[in-house]
From TrEMBL:
Function: May play a role in carbohydrates metabolism.
Database matches in Pfam families: His_Phos_1 (PF00300)
GO molecular function: phosphatase activity
Domain of life: Eukaryota
CDD domains linked: HP_PGM_like
Region (Disordered): 254-277
Protein name as annotated: Phosphoglycerate mutase-like protein 1
Length: 277
């Protein structure tokens, strides 16, 4: 089969759990299904969620709480576009409106044409925006972001400090990013995730960057596993994966291992003792 069948064992501290989420339905998705050329329309610049998309977000919100994911996630990483940030704060944000005297909201009322009440930042993980996990860059205005200075008042509790430029300098009107370049960017993003101290992270991003990146993995697995990883994501779909450090690229020390032999004493394995006798 060209794969290595069977199970594998890795030290726990050399793994990291990532919950990958594609954004909910956007207005560009609806138009694009009817006519693919709609993706090139300026009408869908930085597309926001549809009412159905917000229903999908609520369903995901319910799932991450019922499954225990919400309690275990230590960080939410989000692509800096309206549809991904709306999905992220709706699914992983606090309940209801926030008391601004205690904490800024994750999203203000009706942010990005959402027709949605404000979302609290209380009692939820921190949120950080990262450009490496943006959608396929170029040509399609739906994949072009606004300036960061426009986003900040809409999403006050999202950390935008890792984004170097206020304006979108990555998107080009006449050049569509190649699939292999999207995959390379995605793998760089996964390497960045590994540098984070958090062990369980939610990532809210896009179908294109997810599928092109995940198809670069799984060559050492059964073909059905590689096929599973390379399947396109539905709107608001969540899949959990594990990143493994195979090459000593910087795992933190284990927090669960215990050295044993405390207090110190004779500790010769039985087979070794029999050989000595």
């Amino acid at each position: 089969m060209g794969s290595n069948p069977g199970t594998s064992v890795y030290p726990l501290h050399r793994t990291k759990t990532i919950h990958l989420v594609r954004h909910a339905q956007g207005v560009h998705n609806v138009a694009g299904e009817e006519d693919h050329s709609a993706y090139s329309s300026r009408e869908f610049f930085d597309a926001h969620l549809t009412p159905l998309g917000w229903q999908q977000v609520q369903n995901l919100h319910n799932h991450v709480r019922a499954s225990g994911i919400f309690e275990s996630v230590e960080l939410v990483v989000v692509s800096p576009l309206l549809r991904t940030m709306q999905t992220a704060v709706g699914a992983f944000g606090g309940e209801g409106c926030t008391d601004e005297s205690k904490a800024p909201p994750l999203m203000t009322e009706n942010a990005g044409n959402s027709n949605h009440p404000a979302i609290s930042s209380l009692n939820c993980p921190p949120f950080v925006a990262v450009e490496l996990c943006r959608e396929h860059l170029g040509v399609h205005p739906c994949d072009q972001r606004r300036s960061i200075s426009e986003y900040k008042p809409m999403f006050p509790a999202i950390d935008f400090s890792l984004i170097e430029n206020d304006a979108d300098v990555l998107w080009q009107a006449d050049i569509r990013e190649k699939n292999e370049d999207v995959a390379a960017r995605g793998k760089k993003f996964f390497d960045w995730l590994w540098t984070r101290k958090e062990k369980e992270i939610a990532v809210i991003t896009h179908s294109g960057v997810l599928v092109h990146t995940l198809r670069e993995f799984g060559d050492d697995c059964h073909p059905s596993i590689k096929s599973e990883m390379g399947r396109f994501f539905d709107n608001c779909e969540l899949r959990s994966v594990v990143i493994i450090d195979k090459g000593m690229i910087g795992s933190d020390p284990s927090t669960t291992n215990f050295p044993g032999k405390i207090p110190s004493g004779t500790d010769v394995p039985s087979d070794a003792a029999a050989t000595a006798n």
